[in-house]
Design goal:
Two copies of one chain form a homodimer. Chain A is mainly alpha-helical. Helices cover 72% and strands 7% of the residues of chain A. In chain A, strands 1-3-2 form a three-stranded antiparallel β-sheet. The mean pLDDT of chain A is 87. At the A-B interface, α1, α5 and α6 of A face α1, α5 and α6 of B. The structure holds a DNA duplex.
Chain lengths: 177, 177
DNA sequence: TTGTTTGTTTAGTTCGAACTAAACACTCAG
DNA sequence: CTGAGTGTTTAGTTCGAACTAAACAAACAA
């Protein structure tokens, strides 16, 4: 492999690393994906350690997260104790997986938290002096709640569409290629 | 104002703070928006300092970012040297602003970075021993580049739609309310 | 001019996420 | 059983984003 090809690979990995970091994921996670993505053969954990130069522990935890999100896939080879990894190449699938994940955990919590605040207001609507303030707060909070509900159902709809006829949407978006 | 109303406000602000932090913004930024959002009157910088309990500098920088993204708006009152702020209540507008921002800065860079790596490969396509590897890298990189292009034009399209007939899309999404 | 009121910028600090090193757990071969 | 090869977990460290305190700048009043 010539220097330039290696440089191109490194540049690419660094780029992916920046992107993932910008979107709130660890930098190493992006670097690991980049390395797996640029491998024609399944990669082992130790190969990634030497290629990227981070510790075994970091690769272990990061690649587990990548797998959980469906960004890489584990490939078991019979009679071999090592875990091999290959990259998911369908990026819309990846986006879907990430949306699902974010959806599930923190987003629900956000919606609940707002609902809770509204409830706190409503529970005391009788014995309150400053009814006007409470009413205003409630109005605003409900405004945000509605937005969350709409966003939630929008994402849910997109995911459902993608589930049912998974290729249609993708083909529209990829029509140029 | 009774204790419960204040508690509800604090709970709400804390919730917004968590959300913004989750999406990669400073926690204080969310808290500041929460406070402005739950105010019927325009708010000053110093009021926010006392309400939220962060330093003046932090409020200053955070609220400037909020304004840049169109999440809050400055309201100048003639004959008053203070800056007053009010919250944007159209959350789809806010999303639009954030998309625009992210679009502009880091996303372009990501696309460029990948393009650069591809160029690095192609420039040396003649004097390379391991043509097979280079070709594979190129193929994969172009795969990601296509995805970025599509995502880019998808967002651009959404923003354009929103610009042209700004209320149609919103009304569809808000039909429930 | 000087003093006051405001927002901004900067040097230094804090704090948490993500990393490293190393102990650990598991599986299999011999 | 022991020892080698593998992935995981954990205690401690690093590093950068975001904060604080305080100096600064700008606008105005007196």
């Amino acid at each position: 492999m010539t220097g330039t090809v290696t440089e191109a690979k490194e540049n690419f990995i660094q780029g992916v690393s920046r992107i993932t970091h910008f979107w709130g994921f660890p930098k190493a996670m992006g670097a690991i994906f980049g390395a797996v993505y640029l491998s024609s053969e399944p990669v082992t954990l130790d190969e990634l350690v030497t290629q990227i130069g981070v510790s075994k522990g970091a690769v272990s935890t990061n690649i587990r997260n990548l797998e959980r999100l469906g960004i890489v896939h584990k490939k078991i080879i019979l009679g071999d104790r090592k875990d091999y990894y290959i990259a998911e190449t369908d990026f819309w699938k990846i986006v879907k997986g990430i949306l699902r994940e974010r959806e599930k955990h923190e987003f629900d919590h956000a919606i609940m938290s707002v609902g809770e605040s509204i409830k706190m207001l409503e529970e005391d609507m009788d014995n309150i002096e400053d009814l006007k303030t409470a009413a205003f707060y409630r109005e605003r909070m409900i405004g945000l709640q509605k937005f969350f509900d709409n966003l939630d159902s929008l994402v849910a709809t997109l995911l459902a569409i993608d589930d049912i006829k998974s290729n249609v949407f993708k083909n529209i978006l990829l029509k140029k290629s």
